[in-house]
Structures are given as C-alpha cells and as structure tokens.
Amino acid sequence: MASLDLQRLRRLGPYLAQDRRRLLLALVLLVPLTFAGAIQPLLVGQAISVLRGEPVLPWLRGLPVPGALRLLVGLLLLAVMVRLGLQGTQLYNVQVVGQRLTARIRDDLFRHALALSLRFHDRTTVGRLLTRLTSDVDALAEVFGSGAVGVLADLVSLAVVGVTMVSIEWRLGLLLLASQIPVTLAIVWLQGRYRKVNYRVREELGGLNAELQENLQGLEVVQMFRREQENSRRFARGNDIYRRAVTGTIFFDSAISAFIEWVSLVAVAVVLAVGGWMVTGGTMGLGSLTTFILFSQRLFDPLRQLAERFTQIQGGLTAVERIGELQCRRPAQRPPGAQPRGGGVRIGEFCLPQRRTNPGQPFVPDRRRRTRGDRGAHRIR
Questions:
Q1: Is pLDDT of 71 > 80?
Q2: CA–CA distance from 121 to each of 124, 320, 349 (Å)?
Q3: Percent of the chain with pLDDT over 70
C-alpha cells in the first residue's frame, strides 16, 4: 500500500514543480519556526530558575534578577512575534501552492475526461465523474494546502523538542520519548482501517451524486412514469448507507484523538511524579521541571495536530487513488492521420438528385439543382 501511494504521489511532482520556489520557501521556514517555538519553554524555565536562585544558563549569570527577567521577557516576546510572522508567511505560500495545484489538476482531468471514449461515459455515471473532478480534487488540495507541510513541520518540531529534552535531562527526556512508541503504533494501525472506510465514503458519495443528477435531469420521465416515491426510497437507502460510512470515519478519527490525549496525560503525570521526586532530592531544579512540563505539552501538540490532519491525509490519499484510476484510462483511439480541430462543423459539397420520370432510371446528380423554399429559390453548390 505504501509503495502504491508513493507511485501515485510521484505523479503530482510535475504539478508542484511549477511552484517550486514557494514550496521551497515554505520548507525553509520550518527550521526557524521550530526553533522559535522550542525556545519559549526554555525561557520560561530560566525565569523560574532566576527567581529561585537555581543554576541558569551562562549568559544569565552575573545579571541582577530584574535585569535577567527583563531580558528573558523581551526574548520571549521576540520569539513569539517572529514565530507568528514566519507562520503567516508560510501558511500564505502553502495555501497558494494548494490552490494552484487544484486548478492544474482539475484542468488536466477535464481534458482527459473529454478525450475518453463514449463507452466509458456510457458506463460511468455523471455523478461519479463529477465527484472525482470536484470533491476528490478539493480533498487533494486540502492535503497539500495544510496537511503535507504541516506534517513535515510537526516531525521537525518533534525532533527539535526531543533533542532539547535529552540534552537538559536525559532520564526524563527518554521517558517522554518512549511514550511516543504506542502512539506511533496506534496511528499506523488505524491508518489502514480509516483508508478503507474513507474509500467507501467516496464511492457512496459518488453514487448519491449520480442518483441525484439522473433524477433531476430526467425529471420529466420520472413524473411521466410516476416514479417519485420509488426513486425517493432508493435515494433514502443510498443516503443511509453513506451516513453509516461517514460514521465509521468519525469513529476512527475520534479514537486516535482520544488515545493521544490519554497517553499525553499519563506522560505528564509520570513526569510530575519523577520530576517532583528529583526536585525534592536536590538533583533537579524547579525551573528545569517546569521546562520539562512545558516541553511535554509541546511534544504532544504535534501529535494532536497529526491526529487532526489524520482525516485530511487519508482523504487526500484516497483522492489520489481515485484520481489515478481516472488518469489510467486511455483516451479514445483516433483514426490514423486524424488531427484534432477546433469547434464547428464543416459541410462539404452535396447535390440533390434529379426527378425521375421513369422508375427504372437511376439517379443522376445535378449540382445546379434549385430548391424552392418559403422565401424563394436558393442555389446549392
């Protein structure tokens, strides 16, 4: 499944290559954004250490308490402002890339759909084809607009926060990092389950759109044969199947969110217990413990965001799969030497046969035959 997903995602490379500058800028901004977010808990912990007279960083030693606090507050404010500015720039560029990607894919899919054979259009309902051109493309754009770059940002944040925690206190750092193992296993297990359910949701949505489009387009026929109640019952059954499929996606989405929240609360409780014992034993300061508690929240925030993007990512992968199925359809074969032309119809020369006086006489074409209509005679050549 993973190899197939990678093959489908490679097809999107030419679309993204046209906006490589914006995409590269969004990726470069991940590093300063991560450091601006990771330094905030460290500054708060240093402020508590300054107030309690505990060991602080070398560049804070020798400073009076008011001066050290003013410096820490100024640095904290600067970090917050820098993070907000960079985050706004990154989100703007990512959204622009996502919208341009949507426009290009939808344009190519429309041209590809027009080039397909009439046999394909006879066998495929308009509603299902319309769902792939609209809902699936929008889901794919949503992934690239917020999900893909957001996942990379979360992974970089996890790496920076993990290294920082281990460098401060390796025992508590390893304890918090070990709590990520069950969360990762749960996400991988639920990924396959959610993927199947989400694919069924897309199929049922296409069926609903097809049913609605056919009934509205053929409303005269439906009313002529008195099929209003029967078609309404069929649509209600399809709508109920779609509702149950969506309920399955909600179950898996809520399950992963609740599991991450439970693991994060247990991890914070363990850090408080072990850290409190270390503070009372004099092996760790209260400022360092506060830093670890804030870091534990920053450690699980990316996982919570991953859980929120879980639906978008899986929906996007399902959209890639469905769009790939449409792109794999071969266009209709044209006759040898036929070239596509613009719109319009060109009528060549034609002629009308002469009137036969003898039934056994064959038709003889007459190019100067006149036909007389309501407004006079017109020559046909």
A1: yes
A2: 5, 21, 33
A3: 78
What residue has token string 């270390």? Answer: 278
Whose tokens are 């859980």? That residue is 307
Q: Which residues contact 236 (CB under 8 A, 6 or more apart)?
A: none
Exposed, middle or buried by CB within 10 Å (0-12, 13-18, 19+), for 347?
exposed
Cβ–Cβ < 8 Å for 35, 350: no
Query: Rounded to whole angstroms, how far apart are CA atoms 273 and 293?
Result: 11
Nearest to residue 37, comparing CAs of 84, 72, 74? Answer: 84
pLDDT of residue 380: 38
pTM higher than the cut 0.70: no
Q: Where are the alpha helices (DSSP H) in the chain?
A: 2-10, 13-17, 20-28, 30-52, 65-115, 118-123, 126-133, 135-142, 148-168, 170-178, 180-217, 219-224, 228-280, 286-327
Least confident of 6-15, 283-292, 345-354: 345-354
- Tell me if 110 sits within 8 A of 331, measured CB to CB: no
Neighbour-count burial for 98-133, b at 16+ CB within 10 Å, e otherwise: bebbbebbbeebeeebeebeeeeeeebbebbbebbb
| Fold of the domain spanning 2-327 | ABC transporter transmembrane region fold (1.20.1560)
State the Cα–Cα distance between residues 213 and 236, nearest whole angstrom: 15
pLDDT band at 77 (very low <50, low <70, confident <90, very high): very high
